[in-house]
Amino acid sequence: MPPASPPTRDAAVEARVFWLRFQKEIAAALVVALLAMIGFAGYRFYVNQRDSQAAELLGNAKTAQDYQNVIARYPGTPAGASAYLFLAEKQRNEKKFPEANSTLKEFIEKYPEHDFAATAQLAMAANLEAMGKNDEALAIYQQVAAKYPNSFAAPLALISEVPLLKAKNRIEDARRVCEEILTKYRMPGQPVETAVADNRVETIWAAEAMRHLRSLKPPEQPKPAAAAAAPGAPPMIAAPGAAPSAPPQPSMGAPPPKKPR
User: Fold this and answer.
1) What gap in Å lies between CA 118 and CA 148, rounded to an integer?
2) pTM of the entire structure?
3) 3-state DSSP: the chain helix, strand, coil percent, rounded to 5?
4) Taking every pair of C-alpha atoms in the chain, what is the biggest distance, in angstroms?
């Protein structure tokens, strides 16, 4: 293969002309790229510093006001998101269930994709139960189980439905939920495929579902029709436990029995 020929004089001239014509634009592009790199590095440094400060402030927080300060000063940070959950927990411990649910609702609206979004909804349902609003709590449990079927929150939501259904005397619905847990969530968060052998281990969800199943009333069976009574001797004449027998017939050659005098 012949060696590549060196660039001709015309190509070198064209490159020099191109540089002379566009040197300002090329220099400007280089400056913009350099500033972008510096800006990104500065932004990452700022974010890291801000996250570190927020985490430090959250670590020192003790009161509800402290958590609210973290939320107000560092929105959008991981510590700011966690501050909502800590604040809701503190409000729940103080029996401020409506305030706790307002905090959790705000957390879900601002961080809908957060890893603890499903947990926050379960906490809202528990608060509603504490307030005696069982119908609203049941609705949230059903939503969580349907929306997050592959998460740890799904079997927890399902098992939380069972006492509420039992209290409403919806026994068959409670039984169906327990059977669903045993079918899907013997290993939490890992639904089983129908074509795969079931080698899953028993878990707390399965054990709790079995406990509830044992406490449920068995389904009512239709009563069998009463069998027709077989003809025979009246019960007061027949011997107890003995089958009625036909009276003995006299043989043809035997003399008739004598009557007593």
Assistant:
1) 7
2) 0.64
3) 60, 0, 40
4) 163
